[in-house]
Amino acid sequence: MAEKPSGEPRGSEDPKDFADDVWEKFVRDSELGIGTSDAPKEPSARARMVTERLRQQDARGETPPGWRTGPDLQGMGGRPARRRKLWAIIGVPVVLALALVAMKPSLLPGDPFGTGAESAAPLPEETAPPSTAPSAAPGTPTLDQPFAGSPAARYADGAAGIVLPEAKPVGSFGKGEVDRALKQTKALLVDANLDRKTLLGGTPETVLGILDPKQPRMLSDVRSGLRKPDKENDPLVLFSRFDKDEARLVGDVVKTHGRMTFEPGENGSVVVHADYTFVYAVAPADSDSTEVARVIMRRIIETELADPARVQVTPGKLLVARSERDLANVACDVHDGYIHPDFDSGINQGPAPTGPMIDPYDRSRDIQDSDTCGTVSRT
Predict the structure, then answer these.
(1) CA 133, CA 361: separation in Å to the nearest integer?
(2) φ, ψ for residue 35 (rounded to 5)?
C-alpha cells in the first residue's frame, strides 16, 4: 500500500484503500453494535406526545415543581444527613444513660417504677399523735439503700427530723427561756441518738453538760452506766450505742421522725415532751458482709426547766422527768451498754422473744419500759 503524504490528516482514508475483507468486518461489527450503542435514538410517538403536553403545561405555568430538575436534594436530601449527625451527638449519651439507670434505678428522682426506693416523698412534720400505723413499704434493704422496704425511708435525715415548736412564755419563764429549753432538749436528743461518736460507744459530753447536777442520782447513774454498764445502770436508758467490733453503721444517715411539745409543769416549771423514733441501718463489722439490718429505737423523754426561786436546781440546766424506750430488732436480755442488732445470719442471736408481737413503726401506741422482749412484725 502506498504511503500517504505526511501533511494529509489521519482518518481521511478512502474506503477503497482497505482490503475487502477488512472493510466487510468493519461494516458487520458496526451493524451489530447499533442496538447497544449510546448513539441518539429517535423518540417514540408516545414520548413525543408526553413531552409536548409537559411543554404546553410549562408555558401555561401548570407544570408541577421539579419535573425538570427532580427532587430538591439540598432541601430534602440534606435532612437525613443532619438527622444522622444529630443522633450521633444526642443518641449515644441517651443510650448510655438508659443503661446506667437500668443497672441502678435509684438514680432517677422519685420512685417511677414503684420499687419503694428511698427517694419517696418525705413524711410531713408530726404535729399530733397518729391514729394508725404506717402502711407497708415495698423493697429490700441493701448497702446502697439501707432503708428500702421500711416506713423510715420517708423519715427525715438526722436532726432535720427534730422540729421545734414555736416558743411562748410559760409561768415565770419568758419566751426566750422556753426557746432555750426546747433547743437544749433537741441538743440532748441529737447527742444521745444521732452523734456518730456516741453511736460508736463514745461519751456524750453535750448531754452531760445539759443535765442538772443537782438532780438526785441522775448524773451519777449516767456516768456509772457509761463506765461500768449493767442491768441497773444501763446507758441505753438515754443513749444509743453500738459495739464497733460487732456492727458498723451503714451510711451517714439515721432516720428520724416524731414531735416535740411543751406545757406548764408543777411549781411554775416548763415541761418539754419529746417523742421520737430513730431508725439505724447497720451491718456486721466484717467489711465483706453485705447483710443489712435495721434497729428501731423509739424514745419518749420529758425534760423540765424548773424555777430556781421555788425548787433547788441549777439555773439554765434541765431535769429529766421521764425517760422510756422501745428498742426493736435486737438481741434480748443483754445489759452490757450496747445495742446488739438481730442479724438474719444469726450473729448476736439471744434468747427467743417471749413478748407479744409489735409493730415498731406504730407510733399510735404508747410505750413503757419492760424486761419482756417481744417479736417485731417488720423492721
Answers:
(1) 7
(2) -65, -25
Q: Distance between CA atoms of 257 and 161, rounded to whole angstroms? A: 5
DSSP 3-state helix, strand, coil percentages of the chain (rounded to 5)?
30, 20, 50
The total number of residues shown for the chain amounts to: 379
Residue pair 146/155 in contact (Cβ under 8 Å)? The answer is no
Neighbour-count burial of 323, counting CB atoms closer than 10 A to its CB (0-12 exposed, 13-18 middle, 19+ buried): middle
Residue 53 DSSP code: H
Bigger pLDDT: 147 vs 61: 147
Tens-place pLDDT, residues 316-336 = 999 999 999 999 999 888 899
C-alpha cell at 17: 484503500
Give Cα separations from 170 to 158, 177, 349 (angstroms): 29, 9, 48
Query: What's the CA gap between 60 and 63, in Å, rounded?
Result: 8
> What is the per-residue pLDDT across 181-205, written as a single tens digit (0 to 9) for each?
999 999 999 999 999 999 999 999 9
| Whether residue 242 has pLDDT greater than 80 | yes
How many Å apart are CA 95 and CA 72, to the nearest integer?
A: 33
Q: What's the sign of the alpha-carbon dihedral 334, 340, 342, 344?
A: negative
Half-sphere exposure at residue 96, Cβ-oriented, CA atoms within 13 angstroms: 6
* Residue bearing cell 418525705: 122
Which amino acid is located at 113 in the chain? F
Helix (H, G, I), strand (E, B) or coil at 364: coil
Q: Where are the beta strands (DSSP E) in the chain?
A: 156-157, 247-249, 255-264, 270-284, 293-305, 319-328, 355-358, 374-376
User: Whole-angstrom Cα distance, residue 244 to residue 217?
Assistant: 29
Pairing of strands 355-358, 374-376: parallel
Q: Where are the alpha helices (DSSP H) in the chain?
A: 20-33, 45-60, 78-103, 175-193, 196-199, 205-210, 218-227
User: pLDDT for 201-232, tens place per residue?
Assistant: 999 999 999 999 999 999 999 999 999 999 99
- Which residues touch 370 (CB under 8 Å, ≥6 apart)? 355
